[in-house]
TrEMBL record:
Lumazine-binding repeat boundaries on the chain: 1-95, 96-192
The EC number(s) this enzyme carries: 2.5.1.9
Keyword tRNA processing annotated: no
One Pfam family hit: Lum_binding
InterPro entries on file: ATP_synth_asu-like_sf, Lumazine-bd, Lumazine-bd_dom, Riboflavin_synthase-like_b-brl
Record CDD domains: Riboflavin_synthase_like (cd00402)
Highest taxon listed in the record's lineage: Bacteria
UniProt cross-references to PROSITE patterns, sorted A to Z: LUMAZINE_BIND
Residue stretches making up the Lumazine-binding domain: 1-95, 96-192
Keywords linked to the UniProt accession: Repeat, Transferase
Name of the protein in question: Riboflavin synthase
Length: 202
């Protein structure tokens, strides 16, 4: 499990398609601290370490992962957000993040406003029902608070700390981003559905 508090960014060294999947190799600052089999959230997608060589870390991507996420768009030299799975002794910040991407959205605006940045992301209509004003959603692995909700268009305010620590520093309008909605909203929907309500509104 993760928190959506990005530790640092890594750099894409290679992306090689293999039998419908792919091999992703990153340069990760904390690569020396990883072990084979460790979980790392890469742009919000939970991946398993498959090979290690110092800061060079490789992951195997399934075809399903490429279908659901934006990882197939990665190019050498690109920045990715990184977070290791939390330990039992960690303080819990952000919100509950599983690293299981629900779908992708699209950045529609990213502009500086004073020392901050205003970010707009359009998400698929079927995910909008899980979002509430001032609720949480994960964008490329970043736990963000929804500042304004207008249907499937979400607005966020990005602090200088978050902007400088994540891949948002290179983001541009039109770019796809990975989305994971709040898992608690999905559990509530499932609970109500089991009681005979096929759909609820948030």
């Amino acid at each position: 499990m993760f928190t959506g508090l990005v530790e640092t960014t890594g750099t894409v060294e290679g992306f090689t398609p293999i039998n419908g999947g792919a091999r992703l190799t990153l340069i990760i600052p904390f690569g020396h601290e990883l072990s084979l089999g460790d979980s790392v959230a890469v742009n919000g997608c939970c991946l398993t370490v498959d090979a290690l060589d110092g800061e060079r870390v490789s992951f195997d991507l399934l075809s399903q992962t490429l279908r659901v996420t934006s990882l197939g768009n990665l190019q050498p030299g690109g920045l990715v957000n990184l977070e290791r799975a939390m330990s039992a002794m960690d303080r819990f910040g952000g919100h509950f993040v599983m690293g299981h991407v629900d779908n992708t959205g699209t950045i529609t605006a990213l502009e500086p406003v004073g020392q901050d940045h205003r970010l707009e992301v359009r998400i698929p209509d079927e995910l909008a029902r899980y979002c509430i004003d001032k609720g949480s959603i994960t964008i490329d692995g970043i736990s963000l608070t929804i500042a304004n909700l207008n249907g499937s268009l979400l607005e966020f305010w990005i602090t200088p700390h978050t902007f400088g620590r994540t891949n948002l520093q290179r983001a541009v309008p039109g770019q796809p981003v990975n989305l994971e909605v709040d898992m608690l909203a999905k559990y509530v929907e499932k609970l109500f559905a089991s009681r005979g309500n096929t759909r609820i509104s948030f």
